[in-house]
Every structure is written in C-alpha cells, then in structure tokens.
C-alpha cells in the first residue's frame, strides 16, 4: 500500500493535469464553455427547489419552510449523484483508458484518483451553489456545516474503493459495469432520498440502516441541512467499516491483477 501512496505522490502533477484537462475538454466546443460548470448544477437545484415547491406544490409535514421538500431532495440527490458518478466512472476507468494503458507505463492507480478529483470539483461547485441558495433564504446550517467534511471523506473512500475493486473486475468481465447500473437503481430507491425514512415500516427501518451504508451518509446530509442538527455518530460505523473493508479488498485485487490489465483490455 505504501508503494501505491508513493506512486500517487510522485504522479500528483499527472493527476492534477488530467483533472484540469478534463475540466477544459468537458465543454471545449460549447459556446458558454466553463460556465456550464455553474449553469448545469444551478438549473438542477432550481428545478428541485422552485419547481417542486411552486409548481408541484410539494410540501413536507413538520417543516414551515416553503422550500422544505426541494431542500430535502437536494440534500439527498446531490451527494448521491456524486457518489454514483465516482463509482460508475471509476468502474469504467480502466476500460475507457485501454489505449493509454497499452501504449505507456504508469501506475494505473492514478486513473481512479483523477476521476475522484474531477467529480469532487463538480460536487463542490454544486454544493457551493446550493449553500448560496440556503444563505439567500436565511437557512444555512452554520452550526453543523463542518459535519460535511467527515461525511464526505467516508463517502469518497467508499465510492473510490468500491469503484477500483469493480473497475479491475470490469476489465476482465465486462458485465460488471452493466450489473452496477442495475444495482444502483435498486440502491437509489432503497435509500430515503425522494421519500422520508419515516415511511419505511419500523420493523424494516433498523434492517435498512444496518445493511445500507448510504442510508447513514444521506441521513447525515439531511439532518444537517433540514434540521441544522449533528448526525448520529454511531450510524457512521457501517459506512466507515464498509469503506475500510473495500479499501483492503481493492488494494489486494489491484495489486494482484494490475499488471495483467494491459493484456486483457
């Protein structure tokens, strides 16, 4: 593992260069260019808040705020979108970069971290716009906003490690990427993002909490944004434990099969 960390440090300029290149190429041929980095997430936030609140008249019981349901959606969908973007892109990263892997030698591990960096920039921009919306409406959770940092770190570790694990397998068995897309659809609806967790029958709620690592992370975001309330620390034991296990599994499968990637891609 020390060798992998050393490789990441040695190739840090390569990773940063790839992140900058991706950000530049993402909107290279568009008229508005990098403005889309702001316009796309801004449009999404406005749809979730203004459209659901004013057009669809969606309301949440127990909240007097006119934008409560839109805020609830953003509190769940934005982190979920970030998680799935890192996971899916990392699962495909070795296959998508097959030509680079075949033609030149470099530590393959830098590719997933490039994806993580790219998607983190997008996520921070999106959350920054969402926070600006909260501030304008006088509902920014200043007292508990620092809790975003540990939640985000656990989420990153889980998405990246699971993505690397599946990414290596996907290079050998291309069904992995397709199965992941199906699994994420079930995972999304199994997580209280568009509905309140209170509607889950009480006898199943505890089970859902103990087998779904994203349950606690999304609930943490929702508690901070909706109630200005610190998350329940013990709830993070499951996602943290899953992240640690996946880091170990990802490291060993990468160490065992990384040298064979160029042969199978």
Walk me through this protein's architecture.
The chain has 265 residues and is mostly helical. It has one domain. Helix content is 74%, strand content 0%. The mean pLDDT is 85.
Which structural traits does this protein have?
12 helices; mainly alpha; 265 residues; single chain
Integer-rounded radius of gyration: 20 Å
Query: What is the number of helical segments per DSSP (H or I, 4+ residues)?
Result: 12
Low-confidence stretches: none
Mean pLDDT: 85
**Helical content band:** over 70%
Shape: globular
Secondary-structure element pattern, one letter each:
HHHHHHHHHHHH
Q: What's the end-to-end separation, in Å?
A: 24 Å
Task: Tell how many strands the DSSP assignment holds.
Answer: 0
Briefly note the structural class of the backbone. Answer: mainly alpha
Q: β content, as a range?
A: under 5%
Number of domains: 1
Largest sheet: none
Short description:
This protein is mostly helical and 265 residues long. 74% of the residues lie in helices and 0% in strands.
Helices and strands in order:
Layout: H1 2-10, H2 12-26, H3 36-55, H4 68-96, H5 98-103, H6 110-136, H7 148-172, H8 175-190, H9 202-211, H10 213-227, H11 237-257, H12 261-264
Helix pairs in contact: 2-6, 3-4, 3-6, 4-6, 4-7, 4-8, 4-10, 7-10, 7-11, 10-11
